[in-house]
Design brief:
seven-stranded mixed sheet; alpha/beta; 26% helix
């Protein structure tokens, strides 16, 4: 039997504000120990109260055990984080955002026995206002760079609205990346699987935040907006929370996912 080293990667869905950061702080240290997690990626683009990410919210997630924080359409909303994005290589924003001068869309994590690359991309469908460039071409570019840098494991956080776009990009990258997970919609999908080329896949990780909410926001605010056109400012809900994510068991020799487990913890 050949020697095999499995790297356990935990990807955590969109963290919603300080209440979501608190849930990560409560659950993640225990979860890492119980599940023997080797590396943690957390989407933190909404980790600051009022959308976006701030140095304080990012520091909170790193302190809880995040190795990499990924972003999305709100990554550059708060100017206070611009310098932080330049100074800390392990917090990402989507690589294909237009005219993004701060931060990067890929980082390398040296685990000693293997180097892992994390890639962050934005979708285009229903996010036209962002003006993101083609995620397929951006993925090709970053995968080549990751392999040139010696990465044996490549994980992709694709922050996108449309299920079709997520699925299409995952199939396009199947066999070239180890794990592919969608973020942004805040609703966990029940379609975790290992694609034919060995890429672990889930359409959306879900969110980390208040259960009795509409994507983390107080239900009455969203209901009134949809029903009556009420433009009231979004406010985070409170109450019982959940942490959603997915665990990928990746063979460090082949770079393929061999087991996958969707998780929801309340």
């Amino acid at each position: 039997m050949r020697w095999e080293k499995i790297m356990r990667l935990l990807a955590v869905g969109d963290v919603c504000g300080s209440i979501g950061c608190g849930e990560v702080r409560r659950i993640l240290p225990i979860l890492k120990k119980e599940k023997n997690i080797d590396m943690v990626i957390i989407n933190g683009e909404n980790s600051a109260d009022g959308n976006g990410v701030l140095p304080e919210s990012a520091d909170s997630l790193f302190a809880c055990g995040a190795d990499v924080i990924t972003g999305g359409n709100h990554s550059l909303r708060r100017k206070q984080v611009y310098d932080y994005l330049d100074e800390n290589e392990f917090i990402l924003r989507p690589h294909n955002l237009p005219e993004a001068e701060n931060g990067n869309g890929m980082c390398l994590v040296d685990l000693g026995y293997v180097t892992a690359a994390v890639i962050n991309l934005s979708g285009k469908i229903y996010l036209e206002k962002l003006g993101a460039s083609c995620p397929f071409k951006a993925a090709d570019e970053l995968i080549e760079k990751a392999k040139e840098a010696g990465a044996k494991i490549i994980a992709v956080d694709f922050h996108a609205e449309a299920t079709s776009e997520k699925r299409a990009l995952a199939l396009y990258l199947d066999g070239r990346v180890s794990a592919f997970f969608g973020t942004h919609t805040h609703v966990q999908t029940a379609d975790e699987q290992i694609l034919s080329g060995g890429t672990g896949y889930i359409t959306d990780l879900g969110m980390t935040g208040p259960i009795n909410s509409v994507l983390g926001v107080k239900p009455e605010i969203i209901i009134n907006r949809l029903k009556d056109g009420d433009p009231s400012k979004f406010e985070l809900a409170d109450g019982e929370c959940m942490l959603c994510g997915c665990i990928f068991d990746i063979d460090t020799k082949t770079g393929r996912t061999v087991e996958i487990e969707r998780i929801t913890i309340r």
